[in-house]
Fold these 2 entries.
Entry 1:
Amino acid sequence: MPSTNLTMPSTTLATLQPGEFATIAAIHADKALHQRLLALGFRSGKQVELIRKAIFSGPLQVRIGTTDILLRRSEAAKIMVCKT
Amino acid sequence: MKRIALLGMPNTGKSTLFNRITGGAARVGNWPGITVELLSGKILLGGDMVEIIDLPGIYDLHGFSDDEQVVRHFLHDNVPDLALVILNATQIERQMSLLLQLKQLNMNAVVLLNMADEAKKYGISVDSRKMSELLGMPIFLLSGKYGTGYPEAMQAVTKALRYPTPGMAELLRSQLEQDEHIEAEMARVMKHAVQIPAQLPENLTEKLDHVMLHPWLGLPIFFFIMYLLFQGVFLLGQPLQAGVAEMLTWLREVALEPALSGLPAMLNGLLLDGVYNGVATVAAFVPLIVLFFLFMAMVEDSGYLSRAAFLMDVLMARLGLDGRGFVMLLMGFGCNVPALMGTRVMRSRAMRLLTMLVIPFSLCSARLQVFVFITAALFSPNAAPVVLFSLYLFSFAAAILTALLFKSKFQNSEPFVLELPPYRFPTTRQIVMRGWQEIQHFLRRATKFIIAGVVLVWLLTNLPPSATPASSDTLAGIIGSLLHPIFAPLGINEQLTIALIFGFVAKEIVIGSLAVIYGLSGEALGGALGQQLDWVQGYSFMLFTLIYTPCLSAIATLRSESKNLGYTLFSIGWSLTLAWLASFAFYQGARALGY
């Protein structure tokens, strides 16, 4: 269920650089994708680290806890984060 | 002091609830029978002080993960007066099993269905009274987050504590002891007989990924690994196949021919030249196929395929597919059928259909047999592996071309989100199991298609009885000459045409039927092909074999997975068209260049 964090300026997961950490503020995805992201551990308040980006605007590798996840930039753009 | 144990699966909000019950006043403590520390808190309940212990979340009371053993040992050595079972109401169908296991232990229990608020949002409704009746346990819906349902639940807990189940402790202990026997037995067997895949320490996975997923080197490394894999299969497998073929020919000469010499000529021919030659030629490929699957199993189980999805996703996105589609293509190198079924993970029907349209171009292990045989017969030992690799490239090219041509018909916006597992070493056991499965799979196909196929080929090439076997007067000769105008521009002769017709059923039959048609097997067949065909004709034949429909099983799978006959027919029609065009372009092009 999307929730927004109004106290901090937020950006999207897609704009992070490799090695940067951020906290998930909100997920603006349709129900099916939202479910899938939840199942993989994407939740508001969780910390994510961007591990690497593939060339030619390819997918991203992010880490939540001990789980590594691949996702496209278009999907990552739906995840609002606050850099930490 | 009475004791309440908090039990449940992971992620059920158990700890949140524990904090709520104890008001945050918890301490860490050691308990008899277990080596880990557990959180516990004391609260006043119905006038008495009661201790609540938060046990680790478990999936299975009789399981043998560390946490499951901790819970069992705790219960055995510190039998609680009441088990407070927390289930996640949104996953009730998955979590019910744990509840039933606890019920079997006859424990005094109160059940809390947590996250009732979330369950409601998902449209899950639970009739807690009905469920209480059915299970014979008090069950309460509550929301640990909002606190609703909490007071009623605590009342029930207070009540249940007052009426302990008589004899519970002894019963519980004796039941848990059965699991302890299993534990001890398991530890003994594991120690002596089982290896568990060693998960690489994280920093090693990271170091490997640093190279394997390198922005510029990642893809070249990927193709190099694939090249090595196919080279390895050919270089190790081809001599193995030739050796087994020789052995089977020898067996025919020393044992079968004398044994069957008393039979009538027709039956003798059917059994020896038909069934035995055909099946033996195919059976000679078993070691090669096993080897191929062993290599594939190593790549699949290592976690590298997800890396390939990461590397290839950009390219696949251009084709209207995604990284998973690429992994399916690679899986298709083994067998197209499971790869087609694997597309079930895609939610978008358009993307699924497009992926299923390209998978049949994956050079599966059955086609590999044809190519290994023909390349060994027509090319020098140095050139053969390179020729084989070029066919893999054509396999990709056919898939890419198909996706490019038809992606606009199958537009989709399927999200691409995938878990990346750490690298793992597959255990010897995994690899051996996989090899064994493939042998079984081959034998099933052999009994289903190959024997019937080669018998039919033999009949076609020997009927009517008046005709000289394999001549143009036989049924096969007539069919071949009917189709000759279609295949002649591809450099494919009448014998090869017959083999292609049977290849429609299963590619394993192609070489088997050539063996029957030429009445030769193994090396002798290779020699005959080498004399009759030049490399351009052979390559054109291989291109056609590569691109036209994989086999009947794959077609049946396409039909059942797409649930659409029109789509299935389209897939068959397109692959036949593309096969003809590719072979035509290759054959005529090569001839025009003077080869």
Entry 2:
Amino acid sequence: MGMSDSGKAEWLTTRVDNLANWARKNSLWPMPFGTACCGIELMSVLASRHDLARFGAEAIRFSPRQSDLLLVAGRISIKMMPVLTRIYEQMPEPKWIISMGACASTGGVFNTYSVIQGIDQFLPVDVYLPGCPPRPEAIIDGLIKIQQIISEDSLSHYKVDESSEAVAP
Amino acid sequence: MLPADQIRTVMHDQFQAGFLEVTEFRGMTTIHVKGKIVLETLRMLKSDPRFACNFLADLTAVDHLEKGGHARFSVVYHLLNQHDGLRIVLQAWVDEELPVLDSANELWRTADWQEREVYDLFGIRFTGHPDLRRILNPDDFKYHPLRKDYPLEGRGERSDFPVVARTVGSKWSDRGRTFE
Amino acid sequence: MTLEAQQLSTDKMVLNFGPSHPATHGTLRILMELDGERITAVTPEIGYLHSGFEKLGEHLDYNQYITITDRMNYLSPLCNNVAYALAVERLLDLEVPKRAQYIRVLMCEFSRIADHLLCIGMQAVDVGAFTAFLYGFRMREKIYDLFELVCGSRLTTSYTRVGGMMRDMTDESISLALRLLDEIPGSLDEIDKLLSHNRIWLDRTRGVTPISPDQAISYGLTGPLARAAGVEYDIREKEPYSSYADFDFDVIIGKEGDVYDRYMVRLYECWESLKICRQVIEKMPEGPVNIDSDSKAILPPMDEVFNSIEGLIYHFEVTMENRGFEPAVGDSYVPTESPNGELGFYIVSDGRREPYRVRTRTPSLINYSIFQEVMPGNMISDTVAVLGSMNIIAGELDR
């Protein structure tokens, strides 16, 4: 693309941004962290009727190191929270989180001793999906919201702070 | 299965001091005994042909702190005679000071996990259990949450985790934040 | 054994499986001790989805807790609703009308088919056969449509109420149910053709972790697991609840208790469920689905509440504290046959509006305890096949 020849960094950066965003948003690799009922609805989205492949996000990866979208589907208990944090830290940048359903977002009906009252207390959530569980259409809507976020992104934001802790390999 | 008054006689003859009472409610017969004879009673219910309860359907406990009863805790055994499809309930009562019972693990292996669950949620210990440790809550959990004096929202366990901040990220979702 | 083989290091290796693993369908963790590729010991760790259901039940009144029971076994929530409603009705000594009982049976049997289809499908995915999952799920989506039409929600149905149902089934939903009864056999046939005589499927499932009847009884197994092992016990037949005695069906019994038998029992139970569904629709009586609201035990219908002063007062008396709604002091337990096995709620009442204690006897927890007994000696790749055949639902396992 002649990046080195032109010397006009401003102009080129925008184009690379667009290219990178286009590629990223249309080939999201989700890591489904399905713990409870929402996980079953997540399966519905992947099965034939709703077919998440239409949005380029059907490449489900169960290894956090290969994925860039964490789909937290279901309630997170106090025993599970350290695991979730660890999985988030293992994902490579750039990464996004969808907090699916009332339980992951706020604790939902489970105002009890062992359910985390919203994972956003401890993790940076990008999109919240309401519903208990959200309908498959809502999950697709959430994915489109993530695609919007990505399309407004810029590579210039990814200046990794040297002092911050390195991402776990 | 015997009717309630005959069960009362049988139980009284066999375990004079340990036997408390037999109650009936909505067609369910419950035998109440003191905790120290629970294993003998279970063995009798399993082997005696008049009961022949070959199946331990459920094992749980109730904290009677607010309701009142023979003691603070009762451990509830739901027994089933699979041949006739008849059920009987055994309640073993234990005190708060010494919540210890004999394990039913030697009679039914299903007691293994269910006794662990009772220990985890109520703090009742079972002697003779092969591996008595917490099953549902994390190992470092300090309380027994189904006891009545433990609050529903817990004692702060659910908000005690490290916060992971966003190191890099998109402009859209972090409007107003700096990326340094 | 040659000299070189003896000199090789034979240290045991410990492998951590889960808690986030594609084959766990939820959150299980298994610590496996391996000798090469053979398992020598397993230690299942559970509790990763412990949500305090039983504690929560002590703070919600009898009708409110029905919504919580949905979230327990989320593959077949209607069976949970029915089991809970039955236990509360026994405590309050209520008898729901015949039509409500029949609707409960119909919905339970559709749930059972949906549950078995997903279980078989996921088991097939785990051993590498993706197509069966898609076939099963296509039919499951249609059953979801029926649930949505009947109770307004796909997954979290909350269809029962203490003393009846949330609402009656309309003619439209009955005709959809009839249409489903014609479509489901095709789907079952497809799965049957894909798997039952499939060489790979047979190799992966036959003779893997057989369970003897004595083991099954000692470990408290119920449901398809126990019946695959040859234990002839079906609560629908032996202790009929909710008018199951009116219908004619066979109990499917396996012989070996291995993974293949569990699959077969599940598949054939779907056929029996279809049989029951058809009989229910044929015999469906007319009439109300709720007990009389004068009994002051159930909520009156909404149009009465909104349009008449008596209805409003009844509603007020049932929902407000200290307004006359007093359950008897005592305890009740009603066993039901959920798709996984015996499901029952043990409810203790001290006369207040909320239950004093709600214990759930869940099949998943008790069925899963045999896992550590049967796994040693098997190959590591059998783990997922066995887990799939046990159909462990984390929400029910950990509550």
